[in-house]
Specification:
The structure is a homotetramer. Chain A is mainly alpha-helical. Chain A has 11 helices and 5 strands, in the order E-E-E-E-H-H-H-H-H-H-H-H-H-H-H-E. Chain A has a 3-stranded antiparallel beta sheet with strand order 2-3-4. The longest helix of chain A is centred in the last third of the chain and has 25 residues. Chain A is globular, with a radius of gyration of 22 Å.
């Protein structure tokens, strides 16, 4: 079998190096958030980058037992108590474009807005208007806008405020706000949700689109682990009953 | 359907509270590690608690592409590129008592050592000797000792050193070191590995045994996400070929 | 890397052999159930063995959208539409000792009953009485008895009837019925559920205990795949709302 | 919480109906393959439909320990022995468009060929030529052609032969063969693999495209369960070592 190449970790007898740094040196001097940044970017973050990544991870860590990922983890924990990792993994599997993962599509859209502004020599605002109009014409939803629980997602303003305070708000935040404004002009106001907000900030921090989904997974696993621990500690197995209505074929016999 | 009760997160229109704290307040002022502590313990950590939890999460975040969890995630990523969460979840599923999860069993053993010291009115050292002798007599391995890659796990000394510097080393660290000494006395020296080291420190921080496995999952998902991102970015799908030797029934025909 | 040895499948250029049989020969002449038997036992089943394995797989294939495994798959499908395998896998993860997997523990208990009858030179009935008394004394539940939906599981009588018709009912069925009778004598009547019934029959067919859980997984994946397909075809993403009651720390501020 | 509607299974006290049929009636009279057909189609198959579905499930059940799904399941089983379902689920997660799941895309392509033949009033052969030319012009690969192990997939001829014998070969098989011929004309010969073959037959049986991936998952879980059982029975935990070459940042210190 061919050896697998990697630029992330070098583990040899008595030594583990993460992106070149000895893990024992990191252990006393880098935070977990620093290490997440390092793993994905190859370098340690500045204080500004760390503050924003921390805020994003904290913002997505948990949204209550009824969030699809948390509810999935609890259901799995209810039937299978032999493996904590099985329940956490089940929760992770509920994360997709529809739940928690819109950040990736949103980062791609932001890239399209920034790109179009440059190639068509217009402002971010005008580019966002054109991109939004195209999406509307094609019947595509703009990812990162709207939330099933919150009319206004309280995390968005905090994240954008922090991005500005730390001097890190750039084309990403501008594009997302411009898309939001373009939709409001067209009478289709939907507030920027956490996926849209973190996409804008991660774009400005230089992350690739895939990280828009991965950051949600990393943050949410903190919450999933707590949801599963609580399910085991407080609840009996098999306690969950989902009401079901059958509307299929009536009873019939085999001839 | 009955409502699900929870003491972790309260999510209502326009508000998300984690253990009573508004998530928007946490976003600017708590680190991700603080939030992990908060989710599992119901209160924010002291600077000492945070430093040790950070060190543990950094220490377990990644151990190279060939670690079972990382290799599992990469294999899944190689066949299924539609879902980043599927690949990360696959990696989580490789975490169990045999890989990354020995911390839980180790915390239970530490609790047994501490308990026996009290009930039999002996020192931690003597209790550990008795517990180790019982394990030896019953043919049970002591979890948290030995590592397939490292003769001496470099992370252990760092973690125990930090626990002492922060004034947080208590019965947990003492018990683990006593178990290690008891084995060495009996000529079966196996160094304390990261599972044993984090178990000792988490015991002294007051975490329940289940967290010994959950902390590994939380930390390792940071690494898994980077391994999967690198697999997608650098490698072609289906690139991995495992050499297989067949030693079963010879070719035979259906009559 | 060392080659992986296996006695299951030999795949070479232009040829795939399952337990020695060419897969192309099996394709026209063996059923899927035959192949499941072959994969796990190394030989093709008799008509009697096939009939019973078919009945078990049919019996566990689906128990409605609200069964923990099915509900978990649907929840995952609701948040992540990029990967059918992610949703099916989430459903599989809900299968454990508490849901669908009791067959394994039950097969071990049956083995203990049969073993004790032999070593203590008593009847299966007396052995079952002793095993049940020990379990009661130790406060252990007997796996395979009782069901949260069915006062009497309709599948048990059918499976035991088929085992008798096919001349395959042996010590396994006798032990399970004896355990049931022993509990009834002690006033703790709980009917034999599908896990107990399939455990008894699989024991008589010569399967190892692990298959008691694996057969449920194989059968249920048929149902999970249909549940996920229906969720995608009939429902909108993120439609599922779980009612949650928060009973944790009251709202509090960071100082 | 709203009740979940479903047309698949009605489970009430003492009764389970699958698509209207009492499961106890099915248990003695329907095979597992019948039930898979019933779950997905709402009716029991004819002998011809059953024979072809059996052949497909048998054909994909296992492709050796080194197939991505099987290897993923074994790796997970190597680190986590607490949960058989965790290891099987990990294997399922490796199934995607790149491994085992191309049948779905292939069924969509076949539908496009059939549709274009009708709308452009040309033969299936001419339509396939146009669809293949468009794919080539757009740089898209045709799914269902080529295999990393087999120059000629031995399962394809068997499946197409059976479809003809059973009188079930229609536009699906014709389209797939026409796509294959079109590629051969253009000098890009790649034989039809099992994904392409099952896609053609499932199209002719009236299944929707999603089933092209689901049938692979259902069949492969039979193999995954045997691979996991063998891994537990024959191998030690943590036995698998993947050779890794590090080519990232050189060792560096924190300043």
């Amino acid at each position: 079998m061919d050896s697998w190449r990697t630029a992330i970790v070098e583990a040899t007898e008595g030594s583990i190096r993460v992106r070149g740094y000895d893990v024992t040196a990191l252990m006393g001097r880098a935070t977990f958030t620093d290490t997440i940044f390092l793993l994905h970017r190859g370098q340690l973050p500045t204080v500004h980058e760390r503050a924003l990544l921390d805020a994003i991870l904290v913002g997505v860590a948990d949204h209550g037992a009824g969030a699809p990922s948390c509810a999935t983890a609890r259901l799995a924990a209810s039937g299978n108590r032999q493996s904590l990792s099985a329940a956490v993994a089940a929760g992770v599997l509920a994360i997709g474009d529809e739940h928690g993962g819109a950040g990736s599509a949103c980062m791609e859209l932001i890239a399209a807005v920034v790109d179009r502004a440059r190639t068509e020599s217009v402002s971010i605002q005008e580019s966002a208007r054109r991109v939004a109009a195209d999406a509307r014409a094609a019947g595509r939803r703009i990812p990162g806008l709207g939330h099933r629980t919150h009319a206004v997602d309280p995390r968005t303003a905090v994240l954008f405020g922090m991005a500005r305070e730390h001097g890190m708000a750039g084309d990403g935040v501008a594009s997302m706000e411009a898309l939001d404004a373009a939709l409001r002009e067209s009478g289709k106001a939907l507030p920027i949700n956490i996926d849209g907000a973190l996409a804008a900030v991660l774009f400005d921090l230089g992350f690739p689109p895939a990280f828009g989904k991965l950051v949600f997974i990393i943050g949410r696993v903190a919450g999933l682990s707590a949801e599963v621990a609580e399910e085991h500690a407080r609840e009996k197995p098999m306690r969950i009953k989902i009401p079901v209505t059958y509307d299929g074929e009536p009873a019939r016999g085999l001839d």
